[in-house]
Design a protein that fits this description.
- The chain has 314 residues and is an alpha/beta fold.
- The protein folds into two domains: 2-113 and 228-301, FAD/NAD(P)-binding domain (3-Layer(bba) Sandwich), CATH 3.50.50; 116-224, FAD/NAD(P)-binding domain (3-Layer(bba) Sandwich).
- The protein contains eight helices and 19 strands.
- It has helices at residues 13-24, 56-69, 133-136, 152-161, 179-187, 234-239, 269-295, 300-312; strands at residues 2-9, 29-33, 73-76, 79-84, 90-94, 99-107, 111-114, 129-130, 145-148, 168-171, 191-193, 197-203, 206-212, 217-218, 222-224, 228-231, 243-245, 250-251, 256-258.
- Strands 1, 2, 3, 4, 5, 6 and 19 form a seven-stranded mixed sheet that branches. A five-stranded parallel sheet has the order 8-15-9-10-11, covered by helices on one side.
- This is Thioredoxin reductase.
- Pfam families: Pyr_redox_2 (PF07992).
C-alpha cells in the first residue's frame, strides 16, 4: 500500500491547483482522476486570466505536467471510498481495488450537469446549446439567442442573456410566467414563445432549429439552458463531511478538505482553481502542526498516560 501526505480526488482545476501548491511545499501527493471533466464538450474556456480562449483539455494537460514536474503522482481512475484509518489518516480505495494511504485528503470531484431530455439537446451541449453567459455569451454576442424556460429561474436567465444580445427569445417550455415576469421580459424586448420544446433540429454540425409542440420551428444562433447542477459529493456524504470553513474548504471531518464544484456548484474554472489553492495552503499548515507534534519528545505526563493505556490492555 502506497503512502502519501495527501490524496487529491479529482484532477480538474481545483484538484490540480491544490496538488501544485502541495507538491511545491514538498509534500508527497497523489491525484486520482477519472478523466471526464465537466467542461469537456466546450471548445474553449473563458474568463481565466492569461488563459482566456484556451481549450479546457490543454489547461488540464498543462496542470498535470506541472504537478508531475514537482514530483506529484497521477493515477487515472476513480475512488470508491475514503475510509478513516485512525492516527495514520485515511485509506483511499480506488475503483480497480487498489488502496492508498494518505495523511490528508482533498475532495475535488466536481459535478455533472443534468439537462432536459429533449431529443437533440445533449448532442449540442457546450457547442450551441450553452449554459453560462459569462463563459460563452461574448462569443455569441449580437446574434439571435434563445433561452429555454421551465422555471422562474429561467426568466432571470433570459434577462441576463439580454446583456449580450438585443435579439432574445424566451421559450416558455410549459412555464406559466407571471404578469410581472411578462412585463419585465417585454421591457427588455425579449419575445416569449409559448409551448413545449420537443426537439432540437441539427443540420451538419450546427443547431438548425427548435421544434415546438405547436409545429412551429425557429432557429436562434444559440440556445441557453439552465441545467440542474448535481455535485459529485458522494465521498463527502459517505464520510458525513460538510464544509465547515468556506474560506479554506476545511470540512467537518478532520483531515478532509473540499474544493471546486463538488461543494460550490456555481464556481467557474478560475474560482475552483483559487479554492484548490486556498485548501492546499490550509491543509499544509495542518500538516506542519502535525509534524511538529510528532517531533516533540514525550513529556513525563504523556509517558504515564501511554503506560496506563498499555497496562489496561494486559
Amino acid at each position: 500500500m502506497n503512502g502519501y501526505d495527501v490524496a487529491v480526488v479529482g484532477g480538474g482545476a481545483a484538484g490540480l491547483s491544490a496538488a501544485l501548491v502541495l507538491t511545491r511545499a514538498r509534500r508527497r501527493v497523489v491525484v486520482i482522476d477519472a478523466g471526464s471533466p465537466r467542461n469537456a464538450p466546450a471548445a474553449h474556456l473563458q474568463g481565466f486570466l492569461s488563459r482566456d480562449g484556451m481549450p479546457p483539455a490543454d489547461l488540464l494537460a498543462a496542470g498535470r505536467a506541472e504537478v508531475k514536474g514537482y514530483g506529484g503522482h497521477l493515477i487515472a481512475g476513480t475512488v470508491r471510498a475514503v475510509d478513516p484509518d485512525g492516527p495514520a489518516g485515511f485509506r483511499v480505495r480506488t475503483g480497480d481495488g487498489g488502496v492508498l494511504a494518505a495523511r490528508r485528503v482533498v475532495v475535488a470531484t466536481g459535478l455533472r450537469d443534468e439537462i432536459p431530455g429533449i431529443p437533440g439537446l445533449a448532442g449540442r451541449w457546450g457547442r450551441d446549446v450553452l449554459h453560462c453567459p459569462y463563459c460563452h455569451g461574448y462569443e455569441v454576442r449580437d446574434r439571435p439567442l434563445g433561452v429555454l424556460g421551465g422555471s422562474p429561474e429561467t426568466v432571470a436567465h433570459a434577462l441576463l442573456i439580454r446583456q449580450w444580445s438585443d435579439d432574445v427569445t424566451f421559450f416558455s417550455h410549459g412555464y406559466e410566467s407571471t404578469p410581472d415576469e411578462r412585463q419585465r421580459l417585454a421591457a427588455r424586448g425579449i419575445r416569449v414563445v409559448d409551448g413545449l420544446v420537443t426537439r432540437i433540429i441539427t443540420a451538419g454540425d450546427r443547431m438548425a432549429g427548435i421544434e415546438l409542440d405547436r409545429a412551429s420551428v425557429v432557429a436562434p444562433h444559440a440556445l441557453f439552458v439552465r441545467p440542474r447542477l448535481v455535485p459529485a459529493d458522494g465521498l463527502l456524504t459517505a464520510l458525513g463531511a460538510v464544509v465547515a470553513d468556506q474560506r479554506t474548504g476545511r470540512t467537518s471531518v478532520p483531515g478532509v478538505w473540499a474544493a471546486g464544484n463538488a461543494v460550490d456548484p456555481r464556481a467557474q474554472v478560475i474560482t475552483a482553481a483559487g479554492q484548490g489553492s486556498a485548501a492546499a495552503i490550509d491543509l499544509n499548515a495542518d500538516l506542519v502542526d502535525a509534524d511538529v507534534r510528532d517531533a516533540l519528545p514525550f513529556s513525563a505526563a504523556q509517558e504515564r498516560r501511554v503506560a496506563a493505556i498499555l497496562a489496561s490492555r494486559e
